[in-house]
């Protein structure tokens, strides 16, 4: 999965986007900025009627041929749909997949997990815009959400039945395919059906799916750590049931089909956006921070097994179920608070740099101590730093976009800074652990990357 910035109004399938520490190359287009400075508690309870963003932007009224009927309760459904998606990504890629690979080949689990994570991340990053383009061509989202959700069950059954690293890789790539069909379509619901004035609320609903889904994924994964095959089916069932609920209650009308952007134009757009001085440095800073974050978070289960001195009676799987809610709560608090404070003081660079530096400090803690309290401190401080960073950095990026008329395109370019490092991170992490002989060098490398990410915002000139 790959991180992205929600609520930008970018067209469907415009890029891949996170999730947080989901491990083996999960691609989350719906974003991780939990609220981006909005008050999340109020937002998610909104059941207001919404119409399409397209209709609102063009001035089309409710009776317009291109405007679907208002949908009651769309925001809670978006919260439900994204929570289910993140639960599967975190529970499967962050826990069950790691346990399965360890059972197949304990001696080479780090290298094998890095291989599966990297290959599946490449597949997810490529397939996400393809899946988005397919739903664009059809002019509908619900059939794709339903199809992706229902197919999750047989694919998860297949994943749990294979017994070699090669077959695990193939099965998880198939899992990425069906989940990206689901994900690309549900991500497109916001620009399709939510008016621009309400997209902050929609972004909060989508973003809150991350901590809620992550916590659910960790708890379910820990519950089925001794029987990962059944765990796979449970996660598949969660997504399947959610897809049925979403498509049954969130009515839609066919939108005009949208032609895909030619590859040549996409490449030209990428080069044009990075030619801008401030945008280029914002891109570099995001890429460095994301690389450092996912290099560690993807191997969390193995870190707890092989690096951390856990209390007697606490398994690594149970430790994940403890750390995930702690991290999620810290992330929600810092996301909302950081966004609000950066608005109040009008200082984006200060908060982005400070939060990236805080993430670096968090990574130093487990490098210095392998104790369980050190991991708890790391989880809290890392959640505070990363949550604030993603909220405020997204706001900063929107202020350094090269051209307002190309905002959606350039936000899609930024998603490369989210997706690309997630492809590289598993390979980098497994190499560092193998060469360095443990996880302490990995924490240090990730901390250095976070510091460089903090420093990268300093050359930006147009934002304080």
Automatic annotation (TrEMBL):
GO MF annotations in UniProt: transmembrane transporter activity
Main location per the UniProt record: membrane
GO cellular component: plasma membrane
Record InterPro entries: MFS, MFS_dom, MFS_trans_sf, Tet-R_TetA/multi-R_MdtG-like
Keyword Ribosomal protein: no
Start-end of Low complexity biased regions: 19-59
Name under which the protein is recorded: MFS transporter
Source species: Streptomyces filamentosus (Streptomyces roseosporus)
């Amino acid at each position: 999965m790959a991180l992205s910035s929600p609520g930008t109004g970018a067209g469907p399938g415009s890029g891949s986007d996170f999730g947080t520490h989901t491990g083996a190359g999960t691609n989350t287009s719906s974003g991780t900025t939990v609220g981006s400075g909005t008050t999340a508690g109020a937002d998610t309870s909104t059941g207001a009627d919404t119409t399409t963003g397209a209709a609102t932007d063009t001035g089309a009224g409710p009776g317009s041929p291109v405007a679907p009927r208002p949908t009651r309760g769309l925001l809670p459904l978006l919260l439900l749909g994204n929570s289910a998606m993140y639960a599967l990504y975190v529970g499967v890629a962050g826990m069950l997949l790691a346990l399965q690979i360890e059972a197949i080949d304990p001696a080479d689990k780090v290298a094998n997990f890095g291989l599966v994570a990297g290959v599946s991340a490449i597949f997810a990053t490529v397939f996400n815009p393809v899946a988005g383009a397919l739903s664009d061509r059809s002019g509908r989202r619900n059939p794709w959400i339903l199809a992706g959700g229902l197919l999750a069950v047989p694919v998860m059954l297949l994943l749990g039945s294979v017994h070699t690293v090669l077959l695990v890789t193939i099965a998880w790539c198939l899992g990425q395919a069906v989940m990206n069909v689901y994900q690309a379509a549900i991500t497109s619901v916001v620009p399709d059906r939510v008016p621009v004035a309400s997209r902050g609320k929609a972004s909060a609903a989508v973003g809150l799916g991350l901590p809620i889904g992550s916590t659910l994924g960790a708890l379910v994964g820990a519950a089925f750590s001794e029987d990962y095959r059944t765990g796979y089916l449970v996660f598949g069932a969660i997504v399947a049931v959610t897809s049925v609920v979403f498509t049954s209650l969130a009515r839609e009308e066919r939108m005009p089909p949208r032609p895909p952007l030619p590859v040549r134009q996409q490449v030209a757009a990428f080069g044009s956006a990075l030619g801008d001085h401030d945008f280029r440095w914002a891109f570099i800073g995001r890429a460095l921070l994301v690389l450092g974050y996912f290099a560690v978070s993807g191997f969390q289960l193995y870190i707890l097994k092989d690096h951390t001195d856990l209390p007697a009676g606490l398994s690594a799987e149970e430790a994940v179920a403890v750390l995930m809610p702690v991290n999620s709560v810290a992330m929600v608090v810092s996301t909302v608070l950081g966004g609000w404070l950066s608005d109040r003081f009008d200082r984006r660079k200060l908060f982005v740099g400070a939060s990236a530096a805080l993430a670096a400090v968090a990574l130093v803690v487990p490098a210095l101590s392998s104790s369980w309290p050190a991991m708890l401190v790391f989880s809290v401080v890392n959640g505070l730093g990363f949550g604030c960073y993603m909220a405020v950095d997204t706001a900063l990026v929107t202020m350094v976009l090269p051209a307002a008329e190309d905002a959606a395109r350039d936000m899609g370019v930024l998603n490369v800074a989210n997706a690309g490092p997630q492809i590289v991170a598993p390979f980098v992490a497994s190499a560092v652990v193998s060469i360095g002989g443990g996880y302490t060098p990995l924490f240090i490398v990730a901390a250095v990357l976070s510091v460089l990410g903090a420093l990268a915002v300093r050359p930006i000139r147009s934002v304080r």
